[in-house]
Amino acid sequence: MDLATIQSKVCSLRGQKVRLDYDLAELYEVETRSLKQAVRRNIDRFPEDFMFEISEIEIANMVSQNVIPSKSYFGDSAPFAFTEQGVAMLSSILKSKKALQVNITIMRAFVMIRQYYLDSKAEREN
């Protein structure tokens, strides 16, 4: 799994770096519906700082910024956005070998993104 591909799917919402449920489902090789069902069955593991449902306004902003082609891209339900901690928590409810491998790679991508921003900030301050 390519770290650059994973990094390109990280977006900013509510001031946080997140991955969307449909991207994670694709990586985990499960249906988005199945991933969301697993999360709902274990909702107590996903406080607001781990996962949140995207609002209609946020969806409209994503369309206007060409992050997604149209509102209908998500179908009838709003997607879940997972923070780094939420992605890590997914490994506890999606117990396949694939889920474990994907989580490790995603965690590495989040760390690389964070380090890039820290390095960029340090360069600007010098």
Folded structure, characterized:
It is a single chain. By secondary structure, the chain is an alpha+beta fold. 57% of the residues lie in helices and 11% in strands. It has six helices and four strands; from the N terminus they run H-E-E-H-H-E-H-E-H-H. Strands 1-2-4-3 form a four-stranded antiparallel β-sheet. The longest helix has 29 residues.
User: What is the CA-CA span between the terminal residues?
Assistant: 35 Å
CATH-assigned fold name: Mlu1-box Binding Protein, DNA-binding Domain
Q: Helix/strand/pairing class, anyone?
A: alpha+beta
**Mean pLDDT across every amino acid position:** 82
CATH class: Alpha Beta
How would the global form be characterised? Answer: globular
- What is the N-to-C succession of helices and strands? HEEHHEHEHH
- Cα gyration radius (Å): 15 Å
| Secondary structure: helix percent | 55-70%
User: How many helices does DSSP assign?
Assistant: 6
Strand order of the largest sheet: 1-2-4-3
**Major beta sheet, specifics?**
4 strands, antiparallel
Q: Could you say how many structural domains there are in total?
A: 1
**Approximate strand percentage:** 5-15%
Overall number of strands = 4
Give the uncertain stretches in residue-range form. none
The CATH architecture comes to: Roll
Domain KilA-N DNA-binding: 9-93
Organism: Dyadobacter psychrotolerans
Protein name: ORF6N domain-containing protein
